[in-house]
Design goal:
The protein is mainly α. Among the domains are: 97 residues, Fumarate Reductase Iron-sulfur Protein, Chain B, domain 2 (Orthogonal Bundle); 117 residues, Rossmann fold (3-Layer(aba) Sandwich), CATH 3.40.50. The chain contains 23 helices and eight strands. It has a four-stranded parallel β-sheet with strand order 2-1-3-4, sandwiched between helices. It has a four-stranded parallel β-sheet with strand order 6-5-7-8, with helices on both faces. Helix 22 links the parallel strand 7 and strand 8. Helix 11 crosses helix 23. About 1% of the residues have low confidence. Keywords: Oxidoreductase. It comes from Acidithiobacillus ferruginosus. This is Glycolate oxidase subunit GlcF.
Length: 413
């Protein structure tokens, strides 16, 4: 793609990066075939190729408008287009740069600004988020049904049987996260339970928290980088002590941590550490898959599961098939899911900021997941889990919970 960058952008390093990404696009349009919003809306500007043209025009000197920002806001950043693209266009990075520059020039409506500020002020902070959920549940009986269903319920503590461990010095780091630590704490417990059977101790420092993805996707880049630095500081002593890996069980957070090196590459104090953290980060499925033969699953027919692979797992991290293999080894039968590459509509804050599109995508995804009449739906990201459960009578859980349920109890009894 030929480009022309307006003089006012020519000394901006991020626009120089965007220009290189724009030039890699060959206009083929393969991306539109896998774009969820294009499939729903049928508008070229609500597909990757159309959004690329809008960003190109803006950096060439076209005025910043609410119209342009609206089409970029409708993007889920699911990155299905990147998986499809034969030219390797880094669309998500381009959209991130484009949004940041557009938001600096376009005033959002007051209500939209308030929503984004509240999301950034509450969601990354577990205690604030827990309080908000409690308040929501208090007033839930007074709300209309459709609205009440959108309010999640705080989980009851889950009792897990202690597992025998092999005492070794092997250790890994795990990220508790912000939303996951409040809404699905059993996922972290399940990971520790599985690793315990392999003789691996899990360190989960309390000073590590939000991965920074929410702030980054809402164009608060400095704030996102501060979250990243805080996590690096929390993990660094453990890394120096020999931690083997950083396991992130929320795939959305995992895809973010894997990009710390790029995000902080220009930070003289953190660039090297961030690159090391990114190299150590992995999804539990890829780490456990290498040790699958060592996991003491009890042979049994454990029922039917429909697995929803989050976009952050299959498109951002490019991990496919690992979770399914582990679930099958644990004794679960997997159903076939039509259009499994499509987003469920959660996409971080998307379900709040774009509720209509989000609910349409959820409806389509649930139809595909429930077609095989599964006993439960499994996924790999807390956002997808909560979003799907809010529209489903079928239980939705994290795949680690299912694998933990399939472990041999202490003493093999």
């Amino acid at each position: 793609m030929q480009t022309h960058i307006a003089p006012r952008f020519q000394n901006d390093p991020s626009v120089t990066e965007a220009d290189a990404i724009l030039r890699s696009c060959v206009h083929c349009g393969f991306c539109t075939a896998t774009c969820p919003t294009y499939q729903i809306l049928g508008n070229e500007l609500d597909g990757p190729r159309g959004r690329i043209y809008l960003i190109k025009a803006f950096f060439a000197g076209a005025p910043a408008t609410e119209h342009t920002l609206e089409h970029l806001d409708r993007c889920l950043t699911c990155r299905a287009c990147e998986t499809t693209c034969p030219s390797g266009v880094r669309y998500a990075r381009l959209a991130e740069i484009g949004r940041a520059h557009l938001e600096a020039e376009v005033d959002r409506p007051a209500l939209e600004r308030v929503k984004r500020r509240l999301l950034r002020a509450i969601v990354p902070h577990p205690e604030r988020f827990r309080l908000l959920v409690r308040l929501g549940n208090t007033f839930k009986p007074l709300l209309p049904g459709a609205l009440a269903r959108q309010i999640p319920t705080l989980p009851k503590p889950r009792l897990t049987a202690p597992q025998a461990t092999v005492h070794t010095t092997r250790r890994v780091i795990a990220l508790a996260g912000c939303v996951q630590s409040v809404m699905t704490p059993a996922t972290g417990a399940a990971l520790a339970q599985i690793l315990g059977t392999l003789g691996v101790t899990v360190d989960m420092p309390a000073s590590a928290g939000c991965c920074g993805a929410l702030s980054l996707h809402l164009s608060a880049h400095s704030e996102a980088h501060d979250y990243m630095r805080r996590n690096i500081d929390a993990w660094w002593p453990l890394i120096e002590a020999g931690a083997e890996a950083i396991l992130v069980s929320a795939s959305g957070c995992g895809s973010m941590v894997k990009e710390y090196g790029e995000a902080l590459q220009n930070d003289p104090d953190y660039a090297e550490k961030a690159a090391r953290v990114a190299a150590l980060a992995c999804d539990p499925s890829e780490w456990l898959l290498e040790r699958a033969g060592e996991i003491p699953f009890v042979a049994a027919n454990r029922g039917t599961v429909a697995f929803h692979a989050p976009c952050s797992l299959q498109h951002a991290q490019r991990l496919q098939g690992g979770v399914e293999t582990l679930l099958q080894q644990a004794g679960y039968r997997l159903t076939s899911v039509h259009d499994s590459h499509l987003c469920c509509g959660s996409a971080g804050s998307y379900s709040i900021l774009q509720p209509m599109l989000s609910q349409l995508l959820r409806h389509q995804k649930l139809e595909a997941l429930q077609a095989g009449q599964p006993d439960c739906i499994a996924t790999a990201n807390v956002g997808c889990q909560m979003h799907l459960q809010s529209g489903s009578e079928t239980p939705v859980c994290h795949w680690l919970d299912l694998c933990a349920d399939a472990l041999a109890p202490v003493g093999g009894l």
